[in-house]
Amino acid sequence: MTASQPAASPLSFAAPPPSTGLSARFAARLGSFSLDCAFHLPGRGVSALFGPSGCGKTTVLRCLAGLTRLDEGELHVNGACWQAGRQFMPPHQRPVGYVFQEASLFPHLSVRDNLRYGLRRARRRSAAGSQPENGAAIPFDDVVGLLGIERLFTRAVPQLSGGERQRVAIGRALLSQPRLLLMDEPLSALDRASKDDILPYLERLHDALSIPVVYVSHDLSEVERLADTLVLMEGGRVLAQGPLPAVLADPALPLTHQPHAATVLMGTITGYDAAYDLTLLAVAGGTVHVPGALGATGARRRLRILASDVSLGRQPPLDTSILNALPARVLSGEPTGGHGVTVILALGEPATETRLLARISRKSWDALALRPGEAVHARLKAIALAPGRTDPL
Ligand SMILES: Nc1ncnc2c1ncn2[C@@H]1O[C@H](COP(=O)(O)OP(=O)(O)OP(=O)(O)O)[C@@H](O)[C@H]1O
After folding, report:
1. CATH code of the domain covering residue 158
2. If I label 6, which of 17, 55, 73, 343 is the partner at 20 to 30 A Cα–Cα?
């Protein structure tokens, strides 16, 4: 599946919006900035809005929350109309949880009372009739357990680390029983260590939540770890949108040409080699070995493979220390400028093929005389296989 280009304006959906997922169109001139974007996101899972600073990500998020009202806007969430023409659901009626860059907790309240505030917000919305009482309940204990915040209950907000604060802010947002969770660079104010602490919690949340999450970031490694769907923005426009692996490996898009271009591969655990502490994962085109015990047979895992960690050969590798090699087909070779070529490869059967990126030198491309359609063997350095989160079933 390739990333799809957005349909052009005018600002009305050509067909009725689907009853699941989120369909949005927003357009406006804001000072010298012009926004004109449209996208459709699935009804669950994490969708990342990704793009350079100033491309309009936060503006779009504010439009989704109703905090910014553009005259030319249309928004449908799981079949409910939040904005169309003159119709506009005000922000306090929208069942939206919003997590900002800096956790906006009440400093005079304990962690427990900050969380209770989230519950009260849900009750208020329910009493006002803007949300059914039993709608998409996310139980208190589940939220607390998923985010590991029970031991923080009695702490005052100033006694929390940045990562703990952000976990509580996410918990509070979830307890307001949102139908849509918006996260605006929730990790950007944290140092590397705090980011690494909080990412596993976000991964667990992702698997447990049955609501759409829109996640704004300009850190691609974060997006590669968490997102299922990618909306790539530039200059107020949507450049592409689609499943993350397809957008990452689309040679028409800038991500493929970055120095740290990477592929996300989904794998299913098929076994564990205890003698060498290696997990075996079935991926498109074969089986790979990944260090460590990564879970039970049948569990899904996400692997991130840097293009620069993939080398190519015409023959199956012999006499090499590289454990992982997969048969692949060359789709194209894209000059990256300088000495490099990014090779777009297909793994697996044509009907279910997955793409893999390899970054090789121009000299190697010529020496191997690679052409589209030809068979090669892609060698993956085991160290480059970075297990991420479990995938939703
Ligand atoms: N109300 C407004 N009036 C004028 N300009 C605005 C308004 N709101 C946003 N902008 C401009 O729109 C552009 C996009 O801003 P936005 O914050 O949405 O970008 P962003 O992609 O989230 O950036 P960053 O990653 O740096 O947070 C910026 O140039 C900003 O100055």
Report:
1. 3.40.50.300
2. 343
Q: Which residues in 142-158 are b (16+ Cβ under 10 Å) and which e?
A: ebbebbbbeebeeeebe
CA of 74 to the centre of ligand 1 (A): 20
Pocket test for ligand 1, best of 26, 29, 30 (most atoms within 8 A of CB): 30
- Give the global pTM: 0.85
Best substitution site from 26, 58, 185 to test ligand 1's pocket, by max atoms within 8 Å of Cβ?
58
Is 254 within a domain?
Answer: no
Q: What is the DSSP code (8-state) at residue 255?
A: G
Cβ-proximal residues to 275 (8 Å cutoff; 6+ apart), any chain: none
Question: Which ipTM value was assigned to this complex?
Answer: 0.96
Residues 29 and 140 in one domain: yes
Name the residue among 380, 98, 357 with its Cα closest to residue 216. 98
Query: Which residue out of 34, 35, 57, 59 has the highest number of ligand 1 atoms within 8 Å of its CB and is therefore the one to mutate?
Result: 59
| Digit-coded pLDDT (tens) for 327-386 | 999 999 988 877 899 999 999 988 888 999 999 999 999 999 999 999 999 999 754 444
Containing domain of residue 278, as a range?
Answer: 262-390
Maximum separation of any 2 CA atoms in the chain, in Å: 71
